[in-house]
Amino acid sequence: MIALAYLAFVFAGVVFGAAAGFAGHFLRAHATFLPEGLDLGEPWDTLTRDNYQFEKHAIGAKWDDNGYWDSESNRNLAYYVISGAAMPLVFGAIFWGQRALIVDAVCGALKNGGLSSPLCLADPATTAFGLAHLTAAF
To answer: Is-contact 88 94, C-beta < 8 A?
Structure first.
């Protein structure tokens, strides 16, 4: 049950990360005051823009004719959405060994926030260190 709860929480992080990536793409394309592309040439573009080489050559990102992040590019959108969705997967894999502690912490935070989840088995405040119900599943 611990693994199922952990995977459900990681999946929720993936969904929120993808939504944050979509919002980041929208904000970068529509909420910037100055254009990113200064058309100064290759050495100066690299010095004046953060992640320019990676975005241009590895991702293949596009900017419009005025130098702003291209809002209509599917590649730009995919770059942000996949990046946002991948981070919870990476951290979920890294902290797989600590899943009991993380599920306990998330369940405790949900309870403190006045929310409940069917994935939380018992009240963490009533068990010894909040881990008795989690370790019983092993």
So the answer is: no
Query: pLDDT by residue (tens digit) across 68-99?
Result: 889 999 999 999 999 999 999 999 999 999 99
Q: How far apart, in whole angstroms, are the C-alpha atoms of residue 112 and residue 62? A: 44
Mean pLDDT score of the chain, rounded to an integer?
A: 83
What are 133's two structure tokens?
């119900």
Confidence (pLDDT) at 54: 83
Cα–Cα distance between 17 and 84 in angstroms, integer?
4
Alpha helices by DSSP H, listed for the chain, are 2-30, 42-48, 52-53, 74-94, 99-112, 132-135
- Alpha-carbon distance of 96 to 53, in angstroms, equals 33
3-state secondary structure of 122: coil
